[in-house]
Write a structure and sequence with these properties.
The protein is mainly α. It is built from two helices and no strands. The radius of gyration is 54 Å and the shape is rod-shaped. The model has no long low-confidence stretch (mean pLDDT about 70).
Amino acid sequence: MPSVAVGLFLMGGALQEQEQDQGEDRDSSLRELPLATQDTCTALEHNIDTMAVDSTLICSDMGKISKRVIAAEVTLTDHTEVIQTLQDQVGQLKEKTAYCYACAGDAEGRCRCNIIHLVGVPKWTEETETEHFVEGLVCLMVKPEYLSA
């Protein structure tokens, strides 16, 4: 029995020591808790400050980009107006060119008729292309016998 009592005593002492160690650990943990909380709060404040600086930089960059977009829109509007003006001028030039071609064609036709009537060139030359017409006139000037053809 004495050995059982000694064993229980020793075991009781070990339990008591273990409880005492756990109590000290808990006390030290409780003492360390405010420090850990303070460290966590400091880290969070640092992160918040960093995010505030980052968001300020982002807002600044967004402002710059917005100004560039507005400038690009203004430039685009200016270019659109210039392009529209150029297209209008090209349209006017096309109309004038078509009118000039019509006048030239009319003048060429009248010249052919006048030459035909003056020189007595056969009627078939009126329907020929300009190159053939000129060749025919040269032939008539060099060899008048083509008139009878």
